[in-house]
Structure formats: C-alpha cells, structure tokens
Amino acid sequence: MTRTILTYGVLAGIALEALFLGTMTLGLGHGTLAMAVGFLSMIAGMGFVFAGVKRYRDEQLGGVIRFLPAWGLGTAMALIAALFYVAGWEAYLAATGYAYVDAIVAMGYPDYGDPLSRLPMTFMEISPVVLLVPLISALLLKNSRFLPARPAA
C-alpha cells in the first residue's frame, strides 16, 4: 500500500507541477479565468489519485475495496501531491524573485511575506481538491462494477 501511495502521490504531484507551469505560461493573470483554469488543472493533476485507488483495488484487492480504505488511500496520495503543489509554488516565487509576494504584501496582506503564513495559505488553495477527489474516487470505486478489473490477456 505504501508503494502505491508514494508512486501515485508523486505522479499526481508531478502532474500538478507540469499543469501549474503550463497555466503560468499562459499569462492569464490572477482573475476569474486564471482561477478556473487553475482549479481545472488541479483536478486534472489529481486524476492520478483516482488511477492509484483503482489500480490498488484491482491488483491488490481482487477488484473490491470498501469506502474507508479507498478514501484513506486516495487522501494519502492527494496529500503527497499537495506537498508538491506547495513546494512548486515556493519554487516559482523564488524563481521570480518573490515579485508576487511583494505585490500581495503591498495590497494589504502583510502575512503573505512570512513563509510560515504563506505555506498554509498555499495549502488551503488546493485543499478543496485534496478533499473532493479522494472522496469522489472512493464513492465510485467502492462499487466493484464501476470500471471492473479486466483479466490479463
């Protein structure tokens, strides 16, 4: 189980970072469209959480998984991916000379300049996705008839 969590958590994290960098290069700014594209990319990146739970269900448990184990497995993967997201955001800020931080602080949010405040704020950005994707994955995959395992040919 640990190997599955780490593998799919890291894959989801890498996907999140790739999609994050892709959306940042679009130059959408920080408006409503940028937020929508950002959340859609978070959901797409978390697709590896669904895939990881399904693979574990099919290969390790014979095609059957209960809700709580599926939810716990998915949540662990999503938390690893969220750590990648937070680390990626910090790396982006460092690469851009913290210009975004300076702009946010100038707008009246002085706590954003402190990493101990900024890191939890960044984690809160992705937390709805971290909570919802494993929940939806567990609700769907607890039904063994939903995307049943195919025997190897």
Automatic annotation (TrEMBL):
<feature type="transmembrane region" description="Helical">
    <location>
        <begin position="121"/>
        <end position="141"/>
    </location>
</feature>
<feature type="transmembrane region" description="Helical">
    <location>
        <begin position="65"/>
        <end position="85"/>
    </location>
</feature>
<keyword id="KW-0472">Membrane</keyword>
<dbReference type="Pfam" id="PF13858">
    <property type="entry name" value="DUF4199"/>
</dbReference>
<keyword id="KW-0812">Transmembrane</keyword>
<dbReference type="InterPro" id="IPR025250">
    <property type="entry name" value="DUF4199"/>
</dbReference>
<feature type="transmembrane region" description="Helical">
    <location>
        <begin position="33"/>
        <end position="53"/>
    </location>
</feature>
<feature type="transmembrane region" description="Helical">
    <location>
        <begin position="5"/>
        <end position="27"/>
    </location>
</feature>
<keyword id="KW-1133">Transmembrane helix</keyword>
<protein>
    <recommendedName>
        <fullName>Integral membrane protein</fullName>
    </recommendedName>
</protein>
